[in-house]
Amino acid sequence: MRIYLAGPEVFLADVEALAAAKRGLCAAHGLTGVFPLDPPPQAPDAAWPDWLRISQANEAHIRSCDALIANLTPFRGPSADVGTVYELGFMRALGRPVFGYTHVARRFGARSLAALGPAARRRADGAWEDAEGMAVEEFDRHDNLMLEGGIVASGGRFEVEAVPPDRRWHDLTAFTRCVAEAARVLGASA
């Protein structure tokens, strides 16, 4: 069983070492971890610009996998990496199980309010809004409700492991729990 390993780790300087560690944990559970930087199952058109080749290669990876595990740790703001979120939704639309984890325990609403700072204001009904009058989502979730909703509805699991900032992108505790659960759901055997 093949598992697509989505997350912003592709931007790390030591990405290959982390990818190898994640693939190793997958293999220990009878799964094949597929990292976004792996060679795609079919080569995208060489005439396309780099950004389009990367996009199409990752979609080909996702189509070739049985499930997805997404690192939804907030990235460059209060929410998860938008590319990772796209990949999670893409896999969910294919009807396959998705799993996710975060290394930040603070909830999305609180992170959003902190990012807005003094621009946040209370409405007459008590809800928070931004300077443009848009309500701040407050469902006591770890990110946008569609992410956790899609994970739960697919039969997957969302894991939280509060990790100090200096280990945020390298800790594999929550990832390992997702791998074990994916192996159980997919019926993989080590």
From TrEMBL:
Q: Which key words are in the record? A: Transferase
Mind listing the GO molecular function terms for this protein? Answer: 5-hydroxymethyl-dUMP N-hydrolase activity; transferase activity
Pfam families xrefs: Nuc_deoxyrib_tr (PF05014)
UniProt record, GO biological process: deoxyribonucleoside monophosphate catabolic process
Q: Which InterPro entries match?
A: 2'-dNMP_N-hydrolase, Nucleoside_deoxyribTrfase
Q: What is this protein called?
A: Nucleoside 2-deoxyribosyltransferase
Organism, by scientific name, is: Roseicella frigidaeris
